[in-house]
Here is the input.
Amino acid sequence: MEPKLAAESTGQRGIAALAERATGALRTIAPPWLTQFVLRCALAVPFWRSGVNKWDGFLQLNDVAVLLFTSELKLHLPGGPYAFPAPGVMAFAAGSAEIVLPILLLLGLATRAAAFGLLLMTLIIQLTVPDGWPLHLTWAAMALAVMAWGPGWLSVDQWLRGRLA
Here is the structure.
């Protein structure tokens, strides 16, 4: 081997070893179980905050939530925008899902199903607020990641899996 090629090869191995050490350090800082937990929390927060603002008490929607679905929010579909069908029912369903699904995500219980529910909600929100696509894209990416990789080690799903195995 020529001396120049040997030096380049040694340099490349040194860079590869350095990159591997850096990757190992990053894996220590961000283990998969922690990443999955933080992802679940990050996805739960905006929906929880929205859901809490729709309620005055147990199963008692506030007037603002119903008013939003009755007169303000519209579905931006071709030929539209269109009013939401059954606005009272839609407000109740959205408010309920925005409370229940984030709780399931935080617990890591029925995690993939909860993430799928929030993905569907994100798609409806995108049809309602088309200009919010950058934020909606982030929510969709988080929901898809949770659906793809699951809840991680720190979850009720994982605990149940261990108990049932």
Observations:
- The mean pLDDT is 91.
- The two ends are 56 Å apart (CA to CA).
